[in-house]
Amino acid sequence: MLTHDAAREWISRWDRQQEGYLPDREERFTALIDAVEAMGRPDPLVVDLGCGPGSLSARLLRRLPGATVVSVDADPLLLGLGRAAYPHLRFVSLDLRTPGWTGSLGLDRPVDAAVSTTALHWISETDLPKLYAELATVLRPGGLLLNGDHLDADDATPAIARLERAVHDRESERRFAGRRPEDWSQWWEAVAADPAFAELHSARTTAGADHHGSESPLLSAHVNALRDAGFTEIGSLWQRGNNRLLCAVRA
């Protein structure tokens, strides 16, 4: 049985291993939530795409307690972890690559903002346009997509792309000084070894929820797919190196 306290400890450990790849992760969270707050509604309807165990969703509700947050992921283990740690959040098990996924969100009004952090690069360039096109059908006019991720610009500005990665690498070196935290693989190995996760780990294996490499790491792939889906203004609200918060406004 996965207890509330144990789940919170595992999510704290998850956050630390994520920071090993994103030393400015909390700053990006803050910038994203600032943008949602700046929309001016005390009760925004927000969908968290690829929410994992709910790290962003929990922070967003802490800042905006009047918000309604629908947290979506396809990984049974991460969803189980989030449900145990954050019983006040609403988690929905959905594969964003499946057509019609928005119909399972249970929405009663148009969405004000769709948010995501370090998740949408797992969607292939083939599936990405379909995902954004379907998302546009539930966002209100003027609604936002806010996507925090490592997105590279090699195809458009290769020299700048190299510098962006160098800025990120140097920030990591300063922050960790050779003492890197637990990494992604080590975290998952530790989870697999914990008997409390036996059922969830089995469900994850059955669902084929393992990641198999970044599928859409280029900034241009996301910008083009968003433009084709009817989003108008598209740009970076916050950036450090190749770690950026991409914002798109629905027409």
Which features characterize this protein?
single chain; 251 residues; alpha/beta; Rossmann fold; seven-stranded mixed sheet; 9 helices; 7 strands; 43% helix; 21% strand; methyltransferase activity
Q: Can you describe this structure?
A:
This protein has a single domain (4-250), classed as Rossmann fold. The mean pLDDT is 96. By secondary structure, it is of the alpha/beta class. Helix 1 (4-19) crosses helix 4 and helix 5 packs across helix 9 (219-228). It is globular, with a radius of gyration of 18 Å. 43% of the residues lie in helices and 21% in strands. The protein has a 7-stranded mixed sheet with strand order 3-2-1-4-5-7-6, sandwiched between helices. Strand 4 (111-117), helix 5 and strand 5 (139-150) form a beta-alpha-beta unit.
Q: What structural class do you assign from the helix and strand content?
A: alpha/beta
Overall tally of structural domains: 1
Mean pLDDT: 96
Number of strands: 7
Order of helix and strand elements from N to C terminus? HHEHEHEEHEHHHHEE
Just give the CATH class. Answer: Alpha Beta
Q: What's the main sheet like?
A: 7 strands, mixed
CATH architecture: 3-Layer(aba) Sandwich
Indicate the proportion of strand residues.
Answer: 15-25%
- Shape field: globular
Q: Quaternary status of these chains?
A: single chain
* Radius of gyration from CA coordinates: 18 Å
Tally of helical segments: 9
CATH 4th-level superfamily = Vaccinia Virus protein VP39
What percent of the residues sit in helical stretches (DSSP H or I)?
A: 40-55%
N-C termini distance: 46 Å
Poorly predicted regions are none
Q: Strand order across the biggest sheet? A: 3-2-1-4-5-7-6
Q: Output the CATH topology.
A: Rossmann fold
